[in-house]
Amino acid sequence: MTTHSTLARRVALDDAWKKHPHSEVCCLIYATQNGWKLPILFEEMGVPYDWALVDFAEGAQRSEPFLAINPNGRIPALIDRARGVTVAESGAILEYAATRYGSPLLPTAEEDLQLHLQVKQWLYWQVSGLGPAMGQAMYFQRLAKVQGHDDPFAIGRFVAEAERCLGVLDDQLRASGGPFILGDRCTLADVTCFAYCASAYWANADIAGMPRLRAWIDMLHARPSFQTGVSIPFARPAFFGPPRATEEEIAAELERNAGQFKIVTKQPS
Questions:
Q1: Residues of the chain with pLDDT > 70: what percent?
Q2: Which of 264, 177, 162 is nearest to 215 (CA)?
Q3: Are 125 and 90 within 8 A, CB to CB?
Q4: pTM (2 decimals)?
Q5: Which residues of 103-123 are buried (b: 16+ CB within 10 A; e: fewer)?
């Protein structure tokens, strides 16, 4: 499905700091589960934003200007031109932007202390638990394995942990009553968790027995802000699997993904 954003404006990476009346901020992103969080966030908030592609094919995430923002060399990052500051790491960015714009995606402690803390709890859980488990499950199957490094133990370990985390979220949706992670309102918890959960296919994680999670994924895929967010900087429907991707798209993504990253290992001493 083709989507178009009235809030997003693309700029060259070299122009990310240039002020423009369209937006005070610029998102430095690539088309990954972490990268999509920022467009989803700004689309959901209804706040205009600029974005610049951090091109992995050119190693832009390891360039000196980008490392000055995030020494870890990972996307996403955010430039706030109006305030003259930068912030990296997706969880920190989501919290900063929601606070900066007074978004109900992160209720204030004064409004509802328990909900405020719960949103942060699930935000930090995603970046420390769900994301790494899903990322490693994808890495060992979609990158290492297709390049000849088939490690059944690592694959089994991370797929099992990914499925455990997805099950935790399915249980949370049951406990909250849904339709969102924390009940009847969309929060940063939904924004941060969505792209990884929706990529269960790419991690070969089995969610067939998680009906609440599957319903939540379908609901957010149909939500305009999320639908648009996963198309910026570009869509990769293969991550989401059938019926959202054709067999041809999946085959092309397998080839592209395997050729985009190198296997980096170190022999044990």
A1: 94
A2: 177
A3: no
A4: 0.94
A5: bebbbeeeeeeebbebbbebb
